[in-house]
User: Fold Ribulose-phosphate 3-epimerase from candidate division WWE3 bacterium.
Amino acid sequence: MTIEIIPAILASSRAAFKRKLQLMEGVAPAVQVDIMDGKLVPNETWHEAGDVAAWKYHFRYELHLMVEDPIPEIERWKSVRGFTRAIIHAEAPIRITQALNWIQDHGLEAGLAISPGTSLAAVEQHLKRVDMALVMGGKPGFSGQRHNPKRLDVVRNIRKRYPNLPIGFDIGVNARTVPALVAAGATRLCAASAIFQNRSPKLAYKKLLAAARDANANAPDA
Assistant:
């Protein structure tokens, strides 16, 4: 399967958000926008869809919706060119099945994020229908964390059950951890601090992508 590095845009201001997009323009084809409401997770981010829609960047945008009610946010982002995927959390206090149906009925890919504490058995019915799964390496909300290595077991279990499902991984993605993540079966690696806290974010992205592709090429079943 195709291996991707997805820069994660976690920003507290309009200027910080735009700066990160500028750094990835012409480098990364897709970015993930981290949307937090301060309720589902203990942090808030800047994510004004109207401003982003007015900018002329060329990305595929996906939303990582760490919010209690994702549908209104998705509605606002429908005006943004390149918006293709919405990832909701299994832990959100909503009807997950109805939300996934709504996303797909509106022509978007639907993803499901799974945080520590949520069992695969609890989301099995949803994994059969989503376009991708996103395994959280730790508690969502803040960039720069290390991931719990035991979360790779979740990736392995999903890959075993769903061999063709794109599987993302978020938290603790860096040059050191990429080979193990790819070996476990992750195909979409979301990186924030490993890219944007680097002296050269563009070079950092390229190195992560090269490391992921090398790991995939050297995998036993590659």
